[in-house]
Design a protein that fits this description.
- The structure is a single chain.
- With 608 residues, the protein is of the alpha/beta class.
- It is 44% helix and 14% strand.
- The protein has three domains: 184 residues, Restriction Endonuclease (3-Layer(aba) Sandwich), CATH 3.40.91; 168 residues, no CATH class; 230 residues, no CATH class.
- Helix 9 crosses helix 12 and helix 20 packs across helix 24.
- It is globular.
Length: 608
């Protein structure tokens, strides 16, 4: 019998594993904060990732819990939707105070007041609120509690407290309550969402005037395609018992409530007869499709999964909850493609890709099959770090392997770009980083998608990556040390900025000494020569450079923070910051000409 997963137990294990903290040593406020981090990082990131930053390492930027937080743990705005979470950790058999939910229900009024300077909250809250568009944004308010909450459910149904002057409040704001039962369910949905589909469903199509419910097409390759219309009510019947399991092969499709989804709901309830003309429909896959023996309108589908149309489905479900009579008359086009796992894996990848042209899957996924990515995977497999063989993951996989040194494509691209040019956030973020056009960052890191990197270029890339991996250990130690002292330097919040500073200082040092930096980076491509040897000259050099760069970053941040228009978050996103860092670092080679550290004692001369 399969072991059931429990949110509370999984949270405690996660804190011990990821945060390196014993849960019992945390006070109740700290436990609630970790509960928010866990819920966002492990559950929201899988079920509704469009509501979160592309890089999960940025999550802490939006965990606003602390003194003067306005009764909020987490705020993040993306594509017109603002996610706001409040978490309450309680021991077993404790009841939640109804006043806590009532207070949270009023959160938008408090946050709205900050926009007109009636209230002031802590820096993180104020920065988050400054991004909100109060005229058009949708708000997803989630109250999480591990306390008993039966007495809160009626209050939750009433929704959030309306804000004076906010138009279409009821359509733009959703308040949800998740108690321990719901959190357990969400965790299990998250786990099942990462697996291949195992769902068997019976789909009822709506017959046309001639009584025909669906059409079947066969391709020359033996694939089958079934097309027909289903009702909005049937969509709800499919979704309610299955929820996120319905999207096992494309869980990243649903990005939360948006203006588009509001339009879908409005059309479904006000113009149900026109819905099928306005909507692109739903696409699904199944390993076997069989007509029902007695009901010609029903198809039985094995290992069924939606690959495109989660926005439509979720919006129709909401519309059905509000007006079930109207959605009975809604018709939506459904395509079901039959495929075989053993033979059609590449076909399935293409189907998923071409059925998702929006930001429903990560932009980097579209680059995973590039020849240059496959080449990097092969090359890294020949390198080890200690006893661990490198595993370059050009395709996302959830499983971990303690015997492998894992390098994700996203991590590699962000690291190299940061080291060479600066954090990708300053140039346009992930979309820019994996854009292969003239203005994109992809070719600046990897070269042309269809090419293979040369031996020399691979050594330089790998050396820069392993160099940054070593710098990361210094950065993490510094952050841990500062955390224990109760003073985390805001300038060192993101390691990508540290990688840039190290890279820039090295470029200055090697230019001043007229030495070839790329030759020394290439030397570092074999990490077993140096990375675990504390007295190696490269290790000593990087430790010294990290201290220098950390001080420089803190100085630059301090100067910038005194400006009237300063925003902490923007400091990590504006290109001007890079110029200020360069200026701060540039004086170092001038006054330390004789003892500038380098990665090798016998550094190769420039041009050699």
């Amino acid at each position: 019998m399969e072991r059931k997963e429990w949110f509370r137990d999984s949270l405690i294990e996660w804190v011990a594993r990821k945060r390196k903290v014993k849960f019992d040593n945390l006070n109740m406020i700290e436990r609630s904060k970790e509960m928010t981090r866990y819920y966002v990082t492990e559950i929201v990131s899988t079920l509704t990732p469009g509501l979160l930053p592309d890089d999960l390492e940025d999550i802490d930027d939006y965990v606003v819990d602390g003194p003067n937080d306005g009764g909020v743990n987490f705020i993040f705005r993306s594509d017109g939707t603002t996610l706001i979470i409040q978490s309450k950790y309680h021991g077993r058999d404790k009841s939640e105070d109804p006043k806590e939910l009532s207070h949270f229900a009023e959160v938008l009024q408090r946050l709205h007041d900050t926009s007109v300077r009636r209230k002031m909250f802590n820096r993180k809250v104020m920065e988050a609120v400054s991004d909100i568009d109060w005229e058009s944004d949708h708000f997803d308010l989630r109250f999480l509690t591990l306390g008993k909450a039966d007495n809160l459910k009626e209050r939750a149904k009433k929704g959030a407290t309306a804000v004076d002057g906010m138009k279409d409040f009821a359509d733009r704001v959703e308040l949800s309550l998740s108690d321990e039962t719901e959190l357990n369910k969400a965790l299990r949905e998250k786990i099942s969402a990462g697996k291949e589909p195992e769902l068997s469903v019976a789909v009822r199509f709506t017959p046309n005037a001639e009584g025909q419910a669906w059409l079947a097409y066969d391709s020359e390759n033996g694939r089958e395609l079934y097309i027909g219309q289903i009702s909005g009510a049937e969509v709800s019947e499919l979704y309610r018992p299955n929820r996120y399991r319905l999207f096992a092969m494309n869980i990243r499709d649903y990005v939360g409530d948006t203006a588009t989804n509001k339009g879908i709901r409005t059309t479904a309830t006000s113009k149900p007869d026109d819905f099928v003309f306005f909507n692109n429909g739903i696409s699904a896959i199944a390993t076997a499709v069989e007509p029902d023996e007695t009901d010609s309108a029903v198809l039985h589908c094995e290992r069924f999964s939606i690959i495109n149309g989660a926005q439509t489905i979720r919006s129709l479900v909401k519309a059905h909850e509000r007006d079930s009579d109207s959605t009975k008359n809604v018709r939506v086009m459904l395509r079901i493609m039959q495929f075989r796992y053993s033979k059609d894996s590449e076909f399935l990848a293409d189907v998923t890709k071409f059925n998702n042209t929006q930001n429903v899957i990560k932009i980097s996924d579209f680059r995973s099959n590039d020849p240059v990515q496959k080449d990097l995977r092969t090359r890294f497999s020949k390198i080890s770090v200690g006893a661990k063989t490198c595993d370059y993951r050009n395709k996302r996989r959830r499983e971990t392997d303690s015997n492998k040194f894992i390098i994700s494509m996203d991590e590699f691209a962000k690291t190299i770009h940061s080291f060479r040019l600066g954090p990708d956030d300053m140039f346009g973020g992930t979309r820019y980083l994996f854009d292969t056009g003239n203005k994109g960052g992809y070719t600046k890191v990897f070269g042309e998608p269809v090419s293979h990197v040369s031996d020399d270029e691979f050594d330089i890339l790998a050396g820069a990556f392993f160099l940054c991996s070593d710098v990361e250990t210094h950065w993490r130690s510094k952050r841990e040390e500062q955390s224990n002292d109760g003073h985390l330097s805001p300038a060192l919040e993101r390691r990508w900025m540290v990688y840039y500073a190290i890279g820039e200082l090295l470029r200055m040092i090697y230019a001043a000494k007229k030495r070839n930096l790329n030759a020394d980076l290439a030397y570092l491509s074999n990490p077993n020569k140096w990375i675990n040897k504390s007295d190696h000259v490269a290790k000593v050099c990087l430790a010294e450079l990290f201290d220098i760069c950390a001080t420089a970053l803190e100085q630059v941040y301090l100067k910038a923070s005194k400006r009237e228009d300063f925003k902490h978050r923007n400091w990590f996103r504006t290109i001007e910051t890079l110029e200020e860092i360069k200026a701060e670092l540039s004086v170092i080679p001038k006054y330390r000409r004789s003892d500038l550290p380098m990665l090798r004692r016998d550094a190769v001369a420039a041009g050699a």
